[in-house]
Design a protein that fits this description.
Elements (H helix, E strand, L loop, with lengths): L1 E5 L2 E3 L5 E8 L8 E6 L6 E6 L6 E3 L7 E6 L4 E6 L8 E7 L2 E2 L3 E5 L2
């Protein structure tokens, strides 16, 4: 099982980023996927989840209305579109499947 995140970077407040997570080594379309984040000195936070076929999504209250999780089962990839970014969104973002996570991608929101 391998999960590889990409798309992080430095963005100004109010900006947008799209994270991607490429999955391999398992039947991707059979699994729900999640995005987590962890900021320095803070506990890991579940940001968003998506069901195996993408019909059901959930979001943390802190990102609801600003972030959108989606997936492309043909490409074995899950995405996190992040809009209206705030400094408090600064964290390492990880995608996850059933307790397995990738190496993460750093998102920094700063002017």
């Amino acid at each position: 099982v391998q999960l590889v995140e990409s798309g992080g970077g430095l963005v100004q407040p109010g900006g947008s980023l799209r994270l991607s997570c490429a999955a391999s080594g398992f039947p991707f379309s059979s699994y729900g996927m999640s995005w987590y984040r962890q900021a320095p000195g803070k506990e890991r936070e579940l940001v968003a989840t998506i069901s195996s076929v993408g019909g059901m999504t959930t979001y943390a209250g802190s990102v609801k209305g600003r972030f959108v999780i989606s997936r492309d089962n043909a490409k074995n990839t899950v995405y996190l579109q992040m809009n209206s970014l705030k400094p408090e969104d600064t964290a390492v973002y990880y995608c996850s499947r059933a307790g397995i996570r990738g190496q993460g991608t750093q998102v920094t929101v700063s002017s």
